[in-house]
Amino acid sequence: MVKQLDYHTIREIFTRFRDMESEPKGELDHVNAYTLVVAVALSAQATDAGVNRATRELFKIADTPQKMLELGEEGLIAHIKTIGLFRNKAKNVIKLSRILVEEYGGEVPNSRAALQSLPGVGRKTANVVLNMWWRFPAQAVDTHIFRVGNRTGIAMGKNVDAVERAIEDHIPADFQLHAHHWLILHGRYICVARKPKCGACLIRDLCKFEDKSI
User: Fold this and answer.
1) pLDDT at residue 213 above 80?
2) Which of 83, 95, 141, 150 suits 191 as a labelling partner, its CA being 20 to 30 A distant?
3) What's the confidence (pLDDT) of residue 2?
């Protein structure tokens, strides 16, 4: 069983991440808070690259809740039909757009509770928006972060909520803003699920993963 890493080791890990890329960015294209909400909602069970292809033209014509309502559900579907679960996602985007227009004056709220009250917006989506748009140190735990956190010992937990809390509890405050981006990118490109690229890993000597021969 992998054990939770200590403070000094975690500090060294994130120092290396920061030295490699000081300002990591999310890979979902967006032009404002609203398009970020839509992009993240569409990204469930889909790749960022696939979402970006679908929204490239969409956001040119529907970059506000009102414009999305004017486009309509069928018009939205025409843009996102290459994305998994596109019909259900289209319904949610239209519903959340209507709520934003009717209850928030067309603006995206910036509290987690208000964001999570929107159709199709869960805690992870809310945390992504809070972090990427308002630069609040919210930790959006996806499958990559869950895997990396538990495999390396950086943030241990039996579920995503526990890993989110472990990140908040164990990662030093000066790394919190970008922590989830560093972990996502590490999990997406180096610490991959089936055959982690340990030979190319900059924290190999600090990681608790036992089979580094892969």
Assistant:
1) no
2) 83
3) 83
